[in-house]
UniProtKB/TrEMBL annotation:
SUPFAM superfamilies noted in UniProt: S-adenosyl-L-methionine-dependent methyltransferases (SSF53335)
Name the record gives this protein: DNA methylase N-4/N-6 domain-containing protein
Renumbered residue ranges of the record's region Disordered: 287-307, 486-506
Any Pfam family matching the protein: GIY-YIG
DNA repair recorded as keyword: no
Positions of the GIY-YIG domain: 531-608
Organism this protein belongs to: Rhodopirellula sallentina SM41
Gene Ontology process terms (BP): methylation
Length: 625
């Protein structure tokens, strides 16, 4: 009997299980027609997103023409029973749906993917969804693995009613996909016009990678499981960070993917190298049961082995591979714990807010502890600041989306206390920068004590926050001093060192009690008159006001300041000559309410065109930025 040979058309082996650099239209043209089982496409949405090489802002007609080209390519390579899943934003969802149907696809489901880490919008509702279309070539013949237990979710009968008649296998998910349903207060049903208010940062660790549009693995898992079988071929024309290939590989499928960016292809290929068939998908498979809500969330303490395994998993999926080689496993582990703790506790606020807000810092440190981290609080805070500094916290759910608002009036009212406390602590630790001081919890405690002594009515956070504002102002003053230098040239008066004697003089005495003006380099100070709260100006030699503000011991500080060579150099070469210090109001004994009444007067001075605000950086040479 003659045997019959059936030829199965397959893409060439060079194409399979690779992420290819290049244009997907050309790439798909090299795949034989009718050979792919499933296509997942997450194309650029034409919304001006910043990719490294692709320009995401085509004219509408050009975008639609280009979309038609690649969707035709998808249609050609798909098998007759194949499926095409398309993820797209609001802007072109309608157009691409119609286009795909015209090309020959039938729409099975219009899925809404609801997510909880949208980019915060000021003047419209923050977007929290994307559209995902499930198309098939033949509506009578397609793969849909409805019985796969990994696809099914617990039913209301199981969860809410504890009904014995419930199908123990659960049910298929709705077409609104919520990958963090545990963050919804009491479920989300199709017949409710419920708006969900609290915005919760997502827990998709894998989103912290090199590609801002990275899809969660669990989402791809659902698509690949439902529309393909073991060993079948999954194609993604727009690979990005390589999520489709990563999930296809984990689930034992073959894959072909393209991306026009060489860099993304390189990093995604590295991601793939660390993945093996059978590896679990990142993220919770059953978030309702296995992951607590963000509010209630507390991690189980992990064993060291689990922690290292997790750290590897995170490193693989967040694209930290390049820098990882230069760190020890312990450092990398600490880093990933700190990133996780920040993600879970920052509630959309900045790193500065978490570090300076006592309640938030406590939550952050507790979260690190719960995750099994043994580093001390100072180390944890330093690590967080360092991660921000080196640009590790760029993922969407780590970025600040909530502004920290402290009324300008409040900041102005208590700025003097922040300054006094900063100055006092800086004097104790003369070589430390402001960041060094704020990151050390013990020193921060000293700061709080001094600041609260001076401004007992003000809360700790505002007083701490005030130092950052002062630093900003100081930078502005420095910039102004540079402009000033342009105006006056560099011929400032040459001065000797001032005020080192501690001898009482008439001039010093009159300054201390509200005299009009004194050149700083002529002042000699009285050692027992150390605590001089008042409103001061510092003026340049041509009368421009460089600083105006409430301060303690400003004359004393100016004396110290002029004792340093750097200061002399600064004033004589950059700022156009040694300044004058004037005390406008002595308020050492003023009560809080009296100080508040001073404010309008203070503000008048501030409004003067030639006023800048604070020179604190100028007398703190180590923190001169
Ligand atoms: C929205 S992202 C895909 C993200 C991906 N789903 C993930 O999970 O990381 C779109 C990607 O398409 C790539 N791209 C744009 N035009 C392309 C083209 N003509 N051929 C191949 N890739 C292209 C971009 O470089 C970008 O990485």
């Amino acid at each position: 009997m003659r045997s019959r040979i059936v030829w199965i058309r397959m893409p060439s082996t060079e194409l399979i299980n690779q992420i290819h650099a290049g244009d997907c239209v050309a790439g798909m043209a090299s795949i034989p027609a009718g050979t792919v089982d499933l296509v997942f496409a997450d194309p650029p949405f034409n919304i001006g997103y910043q990719y490294d090489v692709y320009e995401d802002s085509l004219e509408t007609d050009d975008y639609l023409r280009w979309s038609e080209n690649w969707i035709r390519g998808v249609h050609r390579v798909l098998k007759d029973d194949g499926a095409f899943w398309l993820a797209i934003g609001d802007e072109y969802a309608a157009e691409l749906k119609v286009l795909s149907q015209r090309i020959g696809f039938s729409c099975r489901s219009w899925v809404i993917w609801y997510y909880t880490f949208g980019v915060h919008c000021k003047y419209k509702f923050t977007r929290s969804h994307a559209h995902i279309f499930h198309f098939v070539k033949d509506p009578e013949n397609f793969t849909f693995n409805a019985d796969d237990p990994k696809l099914r979710v617990p039913s209301a009968r199981q969860l809410v009613y504890n009904d014995k008649r419930a199908n123990s296998k659960g049910r298929m998910p709705d077409d609104t996909w919520i990958l963090r349903p545990q963050d919804l207060p009491s479920g989300f049903s199709a017949d409710e016009d419920v708006w969900y208010f609290p915005r919760v940062a997502g827990t998709f660790k894998e989103r912290a990678g090199f590609h801002g549009c990275q899809m969660p693995e669990q989402l791809l898992g659902r698509i690949i499981r439902s529309s393909s079988n073991d060993d079948e071929i999954v194609l993604d024309p727009f690979s990005g960070s390589g999520t489709t290939a990563a999930v296809a590989k984990k689930l034992g499928r073959q894959y072909i993917t393209f991306d026009m960016s060489q860099e993304y292809v390189k990093l995604a290929s590295e991601r793939l190298q660390n993945i093996a068939v059978g590896d679990p998908l990142v993220g919770s498979a059953d978030p309702l049961r296995s992951v607590p809500s963000t509010a209630a969330g507390k991690r189980k303490k992990k064993t060291p082995k689990q922690k290292v395994a997790d750290q590897r998993k995170v490193a693989r999926s967040v694209g930290l591979q390049m820098s990882l080689e230069f760190r020890t496993a312990g450092e990398a582990e600490l880093e990933s714990l700190v990133v996780d703790a920040f993600r879970d506790t920052h509630a959309g606020f900045s790193v500065d807010r978490v570090l300076l807000d006592p309640a938030m810092s406590e939550r952050f440190v507790n979260e690190c502890r719960t995750a099994g981290c043994e580093a001390n609080e100072h180390e944890l805070r330093r690590q967080l600041a360092q991660l921000r500094f080196v640009g590790t916290l760029t993922a969407e759910d780590l970025q600040p989306s909530e502004p920290t608002i402290v009324a300008t009036e409040t900041l102005q009212r208590y700025r003097y206390a922040s300054e006094i406390a900063w100055r006092t602590i800086a004097d104790r630790y003369p070589t430390w920068t402001l960041d060094d001081l704020l990151l050390d919890p013990e020193i921060l405690c000293q700061f709080d004590t001094v600041a609260r002594q001076v401004a007992p009515n003000c809360d700790t956070f505002t007083l701490r926050w005030g130092t950052l504002k002062l630093r900003q102002l100081a930078a502005a003053v420095l910039a102004q001093a540079e402009v000033h230098q342009g105006r006056t040239g560099q011929n400032g008066a040459k001065r000797g060192r001032a005020g080192q004697g501690g001898k009482k003089t008439k001039k010093a005495k009159s300054l201390l009690h509200g005299i009009d003006e004194v050149a700083a380099d002529t002042i000699e100070w009285d050692d027992d008159q150390e605590h001089l709260a008042g409103i001061y100006t510092i003026e340049s030699t041509d009368g421009a006001i460089l600083y105006v503000g409430e301060s303690l011991n400003l004359p004393v500080r100016m004396r110290d300041h002029f004792a340093a060579n750097e200061s002399i150099d600064f004033w004589t070469t950059l700022a156009g000559g040694t300044p004058r210090v004037r005390m406008h109001l002595d308020k050492t004994d003023a009560s809080q309410s009296e100080q508040e009444r001073l404010l309008p007067w203070h503000r008048e001075l501030l409004m003067r065109e030639d006023s800048a605000c604070n020179l604190v950086n100028l007398w703190t040479p180590v923190d001169n930025a």
